[in-house]
DNA sequence: ATACGTTCCATTGTCATACT
DNA sequence: AGTATGACAATGGAACGTAT
């Protein structure tokens, strides 16, 4: 790429144009990471117990407050899994599917399987900032995988050598907070959507069964309220009918030369 | 020709193990 | 200890076979 104009107050680095007072650091320069393991599944005394053990499928939780599996102390000491602290960034290492490159944050101390790398928290970086940076770089992370084709994986060496823009800890925290605020707003919106969907479901139940009539259909011309009648589908308004879909389709059947037909429901 | 149930196969995630 | 890879299980969808 040819020389481009760099805005005042910015500088060119190997990872792109960033503010002058930011640095570029590799993950291995400010913290370390480790992978986990799986206690032998054929030894039942390794399973159960009190130690949370996370499989890579649970990375989609994004913020991991609990996991579904538990292992015993015996399982913990007889496998290569180990406790990683709360506030670690967890990254999927293996898998052809979407797990590889997916990141999450542990919100409890937990153990993981060998397909998860845990990047430890440190006093030099913001876990949330690192999480957002890596989450944003999902496609890039996937392209970094070793090996050819689907089976490739990330490994600890690749993670340690990942470079990222590195502002002061205070700025990292502030950036992460801003993003977290947006996440909060999105979560609120999602809650609202769920609520509206519940209202819609309830409304469908009322309107499609005739339990509640829209005002202009609820009364006879003389002002008396329309009654209900009993049918095989339950009580429905006295002026409604019960018909099979087949009956409706027969009536709607358009005549095409080739014999095909469609039903348009409005 | 259609409806339905079954089988097959690709994808993905996971575990075990050999290798460095 | 960390990584690569063979093996396998779970899943879902496509393809196929059969009865009507």
TrEMBL record:
<keyword id="KW-0680">Restriction system</keyword>
<dbReference type="Pfam" id="PF01420">
    <property type="entry name" value="Methylase_S"/>
</dbReference>
<keyword id="KW-0255">Endonuclease</keyword>
<keyword id="KW-0238">DNA-binding</keyword>
<keyword id="KW-0378">Hydrolase</keyword>
<protein>
    <submittedName>
        <fullName>Restriction endonuclease subunit S</fullName>
    </submittedName>
</protein>
<dbReference type="GO" id="GO:0004519">
    <property type="term" value="F:endonuclease activity"/>
</dbReference>
<dbReference type="GO" id="GO:0003677">
    <property type="term" value="F:DNA binding"/>
</dbReference>
<dbReference type="InterPro" id="IPR052021">
    <property type="entry name" value="Type-I_RS_S_subunit"/>
</dbReference>
<dbReference type="InterPro" id="IPR000055">
    <property type="entry name" value="Restrct_endonuc_typeI_TRD"/>
</dbReference>
<dbReference type="GO" id="GO:0009307">
    <property type="term" value="P:DNA restriction-modification system"/>
</dbReference>
<keyword id="KW-0540">Nuclease</keyword>
<dbReference type="InterPro" id="IPR044946">
    <property type="entry name" value="Restrct_endonuc_typeI_TRD_sf"/>
</dbReference>
<feature type="domain" description="Type I restriction modification DNA specificity">
    <location>
        <begin position="19"/>
        <end position="191"/>
    </location>
</feature>
<comment type="similarity">
    <text>Belongs to the type-I restriction system S methylase family.</text>
</comment>
